[in-house]
Each structure stands twice: as C-alpha cells, then as structure tokens.
Write a sequence for this structure.
C-alpha cells in the first residue's frame, strides 16, 4: 500500500451490504493532449484513424450482440456513427488542415454536435452517442483502453467519478460486488439503481480514484466505510457484520408490523413490467410507487391507449389482489418528453413538471388514465392512482375529478411540494390518500438540487426540518382520517422507517432489496417506541444528531442493519 | 445523372429510426447517392450524421441523385421507402 494513500475512506452509504474484492476503475474520457504534434502526413494519419474507428465500431457491435432490448439500438447507432462517411470526411478535412490526430477527431465530432444541438429534441440527445464514439476513438489513438465500465472478468468493486444511467444499465450483482463513486448523492441514479440491484454502494467517497486498480477493497454500503487493502482482521470484522446483518434479516416474510402489532404495509417501488415481475415474487404487500415514466421517456410519439392498457394490465396481474399505487406521468423539463416538450426552462425542478405538465397536455394524461381504467376494469385489481407535484387543493380537485370520472376506485396525490405538506388537510379532504415523495420534498424544503452531489450535506434524509414537514403532512392525514405513505428513499432506511412510522405514516414503499431490513427493525420496536424516536429526531439540531439520538435509544439490531 | 424528388412521409421527419432505415438502404445500394433539401447542398445519403443534420421534416421535398449502374432502380426503391411513414411501421 502506498504510504501517502489513506487506509480508510468515508462516504455516504446508499445501498446496504458488504463486499470485498479487487478495485476496477470506470475510466474517464481522455482529453486530446495539449502538446499533440500537428499532422504532417494526412494520408497516414487518416489510415490510422480509419483503423481505430473500425475497432470502435466492431467493439460496439460486439457489445450490442449481448445487450438487452434497451441498450442494443443505442450501441448499434454508435457503431453506425463510427463508420459514418460524413464523420470520416470531417476528420479528413481537419487532418488535411494540419490538426493533430486526436484533435482532428474531436473537432469533426464537435462540428456535428453543434449542428445537432441547434436542431434540439431528439437530435440533441444524439450528441451523447457521438461524444461516446469520440471518447472511444481518442482513447484508442492514445493507446489507452476505451473509457467507461470495463468488462468485469472477475467479481470486482467498481469505482467511478459518477456513473451515467447508461453505464449502470449493464451491471449485475454477480460480477459487480460493490459500487463506489466520488460524486453523486443519496438520491442520485447510482444510489437508486444500486439499491434496486442489491449491490452495496457508497457515494461521495472523495479520493477513491487515486487507489491503484486491482487493490483489494472492502466496503460497507450501510455505514459508508471503505477500507483499502484490508487486513485479515478487518475482513473478519466485516464478515461478522455481514453475518449479524443476515441473521437479523432472517426474521420472516410476513406482513410488516411493529412489535405490538401495529400494521405498516411494506411495498415495492417499481418502474417496469420486469420490475413488477421481480417484485411480485418477493414478500411485499404490493406496490407503493409504480413510476410510469419508462413507458414515455424514450419515445418519439405517445404510446397508444392499447399499448398502455396492455402494460398496466400486465403489472396489475402480476400483483393479483395486492395493491398497486400508480403515479401518473412525472415528466418535465429535466426529463423531457419528445412528443410533449414545452421547451427549455431556467429551473426545471421548479417548472412545468408532473401534474403541471399533465394540465397542459391533458391528452397525454387522459390517455394514461383511460388506459389505467381499462386495465383496472379488466383485472379488478386494487389500483390506486396518484398525481405527482401537487401543490394546491385546486390541483387535487382537478385531478380527482378526472380519475373518478373514469370509475377508478381510489385517487391520491404525491406530497413532495412543501405547500402540499403544510396544507395536507385541505388537500386530503378531496382525495383518498397521499404518498410522501421524500426525495423531492427534501429538495424543495432545503432548496438544494438533489442531483448535485456537492449539496449532499443538505440532503441527508435525517434532516430535522424534513421530519417537521413530514409531521405536518401526517397531522393533516390524521385530521382527515386518510392514510399517508412514504415512497421516497427515506422509507427504505431502517432507522428512518421507524421515525416515519412514529410520525404517523401507514405504509413504506422502497426498493424490494430493502424490505427485509425494514421489516426486521419494525418487528423489534413498538409503535410507542417509534413515536419516541420521532420525537428524539425532531428535537435534534442536525441530521447527524437526529440519527445518533435514535441509534442511542433503539434496539442494537438497528445498528447492525444500517 | 438520374434524380428523383419525393416528399418525406414519416411523421417525425427524416431522423431517428426513419433516417437510420434510409441510410442503411442507401448504403446497401453500393452506389454514391446524395440527398438534398430544396435549394440546399446535396449530402452523402450513406451518412447518418449528414442525413440527420439535414433536418428534413415531414412533408418536405428532398432530391435524391445517384450515379452508376442500377442508379435508377436504387433511387426508385429509396423513393418508395421515403414515401412510407417509417415511424408508424
């Protein structure tokens, strides 16, 4: 081990579990070197570039052959671009003008990117594909391996600055033992995906990229600790923690309830039909959040009523008589729909997203509701439909009328805007239930962008201000006799789950991999204890203090599971 | 040189999947083929980047030109392709 290298790193644990394995780095994109010589023999340089582009194209094709239906067309399009005669002509021109070899590639790509960006929409998104081809070609020209996630030949721990959703799409728990990133926050894509796949993960681990590739790394995705080149004792300690964790998790598969029998429904968050099938096989009491965006986001045209009906029917059928809470389309400027793009916005998170977009594009919302109604009538399932980003009573009324007019049995709203939490009583007067989207609720309560890793300290879900806002929302629910659930990441955190139950929520929805730990801690505490934890956490002056206060008075089993 | 004019029938215009299908067909013809918008500079029809950058929208007329043996037949089949709503198929 290098003398100047830290032995342990601390980040934020975002997906519980432990792992020990060799470190593999997700290579960053190389930059064309500043001191690159100018091209003097354009023909020779062109021959070299041509050979490299062909290698890039065949590499992408080989990956496409083994990819799933989602990744395949993206990889094939990349291969097509690498072999594109228009790109070739552009590079030849740049080489002819004397630009250095990697600079010529970058300049030709930049020209097309500028053109595509000015065209906007679908074309602007192709810029990412083109830049990917450029990065691969530049790396090869520099004699380096291609950037991105390398092929994992042995089970490894993956480290990266941050992972793009496309990069994480190919990871599986059998080869990827753990994920560590320098950037990212507790609600970043990496965190959500790792939890979904059950891969232990730590984000905000600054310095991890300085550790040499191949070094043995031990990580604990619960507490966020990383050990470089661990000693035998340290590995044994981690194994002991893992054993205790597994023993604690062996606590059964029944319905969620506290030690004194107070029921708390434990539900799954899902996004696709595949997710639904996997989650339905797990001991969960249904779905607390079905994100329907996946049906829409990659599409140039709106999915038809028939297609949507078929998809929803499949999901409802998978869960039989268990509940399925469906969130209507939550899109907006940060997740634009190609067929309903309202144009760029200064502050997408504060813009026309969620139900606000639904109120403008009523055709999109109504088609979705009609499909949900048709699937409900076909299956007779326990379907509950809720709207994202509701802020006012008027919005709740508008949505509830539309849903009820179609004969759907239950209508609710997401509470993710502080206004809706503060005045939940008025909103719940008009609907049957509410679900707290704690990720967005925290982002809006703290005025801190949840995708910005640097703001992670403001986005700790133990934040007492967030707990106060949740308490207000729950008070309104009690006053109206309407149930309030949680479907944000906080619901799957074993410690916070206890606090949330103490605050009055009646269901918790999370990545299916997190359900066992939450079930176990719930069964170890009474409702009254949960209420004490909630009071202790709200009495704290910081997130760290809130967490410490709860750990100090909770059963030790909680510490094993965090 | 044989040329053809055709209005783009795809509802999304000549990008995404329709562009990709068009470029694949043009490449398969094995001839130098160009495509141009009205009054615009002809570009290589075998380049997905150039074809997409052309930005031909639904209903816009494009001019196809090809040189060499079988040019007429190749152009006819490309015209046929562009006359269909590729995105809906």
């Amino acid at each position: 081990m290098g003398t100047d290298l830290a032995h342990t790193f601390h980040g934020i644990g975002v997906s519980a579990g432990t792992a020990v394995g060799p470190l593999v780095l997700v290579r960053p994109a190389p930059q064309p070197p500043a001191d690159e010589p100018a091209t003097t023999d354009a023909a020779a340089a062109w021959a070299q570039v041509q050979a490299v582009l062909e290698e890039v194209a065949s590499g992408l094709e080989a990956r496409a052959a083994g990819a799933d239906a989602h990744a395949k067309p993206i990889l094939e399009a990349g291969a097509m671009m690498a072999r594109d005669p228009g790109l070739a002509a552009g590079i030849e021109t740049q080489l002819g003008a004397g630009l250095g070899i990697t600079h010529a590639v970058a300049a030709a790509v930049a020209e097309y990117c500028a053109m595509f960006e000015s065209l906007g929409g679908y074309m602007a998104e192709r810029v990412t594909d083109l830049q990917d081809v450029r990065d691969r070609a530049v790396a090869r020209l520099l004699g380096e391996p291609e950037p991105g996630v390398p092929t994992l030949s042995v089970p490894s721990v993956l480290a990266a600055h941050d992972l793009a959703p496309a990069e994480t799409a190919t990871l599986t728990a059998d080869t990827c033992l753990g994920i560590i990133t320098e950037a990212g926050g507790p609600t970043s894509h990496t965190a959500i995906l790792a939890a979904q796949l059950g891969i232990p993960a730590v984000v905000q681990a600054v310095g991890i990229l300085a550790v040499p590739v191949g070094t043995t790394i031990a990580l604990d995705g619960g507490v966020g600790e990383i050990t470089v080149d661990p000693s035998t004792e340290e590995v044994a300690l981690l194994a002991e923690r893992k054993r205790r964790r597994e023993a604690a998790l062996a606590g059964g598969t029944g319905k969620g309830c506290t030690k004194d029998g107070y029921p708390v429904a434990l539900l799954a968050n899902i996004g696709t039909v595949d997710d639904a099938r996997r989650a339905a096989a797990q001991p969960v009491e249904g779905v607390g959040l079905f994100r329907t965006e996946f049906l829409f986001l990659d599409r140039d045209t709106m999915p038809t009523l028939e297609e949507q009906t078929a998809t929803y029917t499949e999901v409802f059928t998978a869960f039989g008589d268990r509940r399925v809470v469906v969130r209507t389309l939550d899109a907006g400027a940060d997740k634009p729909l190609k067929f309903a793009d309202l144009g760029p916005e200064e502050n997408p998170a504060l813009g026309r997203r969620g139900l606000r977009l639904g109120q403008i594009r009523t055709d999109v919302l109504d088609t979705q509701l009609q499909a949900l109604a048709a699937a409900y009538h076909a299956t007779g399932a326990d379907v509950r439909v809720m709207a994202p980003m509701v802020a006012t009573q008027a919005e709740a009324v508008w949505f509830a009328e539309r849903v009820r007019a179609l004969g759907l049995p239950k209508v609710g709203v997401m509470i993710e805007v502080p206004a809706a939490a503060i005045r939940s009583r008025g909103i719940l007067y008009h609907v049957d239930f509410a679900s707290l989207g704690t990720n967005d609720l925290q982002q809006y309560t703290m005025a801190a962008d949840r995708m910005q890793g640097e703001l992670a300290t403001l986005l700790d879900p133990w934040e007492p201000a967030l707990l106060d806002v949740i308490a207000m929302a729950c008070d309104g629910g009690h006053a109206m006799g309407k149930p309030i659930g949680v479907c944000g990441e906080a619901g799957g955190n074993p410690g916070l789950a206890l606090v949330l139950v103490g605050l009055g929520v009646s269901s918790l929805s999370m990545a299916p991999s997190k359900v066992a730990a939450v079930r176990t801690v719930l069964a170890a505490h009474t409702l009254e204890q949960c209420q004490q934890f909630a009071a202790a956490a709200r009495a704290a002056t910081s997130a760290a203090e809130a967490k410490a206060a709860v750990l100090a008075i909770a059963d030790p089993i909680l510490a094993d599971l965090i | 040189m044989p040329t053809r004019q055709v209005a783009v029938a795809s509802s999304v215009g000549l990008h995404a999947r329709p562009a990709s299908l068009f470029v694949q067909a043009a490449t398969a013809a094995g001839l130098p083929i160009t495509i141009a918008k009205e009054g615009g500079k002809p570009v290589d029809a075998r380049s997905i980047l150039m074809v997409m950058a052309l930005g031909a929208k639904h209903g816009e007329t494009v001019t196809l030109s090809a040189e060499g043996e079988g040019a007429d037949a190749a152009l006819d089949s490309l015209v046929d392709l562009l006359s269909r709503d590729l995105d809906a198929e």
Notes: The first strand of chain A starts at residue 8 and ends at 10. Chain A touches chain B through 18 residues (CB under 8 Å). Chain A has a mean pLDDT of 90.
